[in-house]
Amino acid sequence: MPFPEDGLAPDLPLDELPTDVAALPGAGPRPAETWLRIVQVHDRITHRVDSALHREHGLSLTGFEALRRIAEAPGERATMGEVAEAVGLSRAGVTSTVGRLVADGLVVRERTAGDRRLLHARLTPAGRAKVAAAVPTHDGLVARLLVLLGDDAALVTDALARVSAATRTRD
Description:
By secondary structure, this protein is mainly alpha-helical. Helices cover 57% and strands 8% of the residues. A 3-stranded antiparallel beta sheet has the order 1-3-2.
């Protein structure tokens, strides 16, 4: 039976039509496969970058991310909540991470005169030097790994940003 001019297949009984779009030839991956790939890529890149930062700078990836966010904040100071949000840590996680950075002399905690309730983390000169030294290691390794995205980098970044925004929660 020839196909109609619109290119669609001839009428099939409803019970013969596929119910799972992923089962169609050329269909995209199932959500479970996409999720697995996201988790694998995150875990593998995180491990590689964390190892390089520890080895070359004596700094964890989480510590680096916190330092970088503080360094990029106005006046090189950020509230604990801002650091937690930017790095994806819980309040307890950011307290622990910033505590290690304070102990290493990379950050100081301070309260502002305008609002004594808010605790800020401010970069020290040693913290500024540490993050500046670690940025090329971090960014270079991430760039070498993500270059494999090729021309799809913008598409993947945009898609992941949409998922991230949709799943953002406040604890």
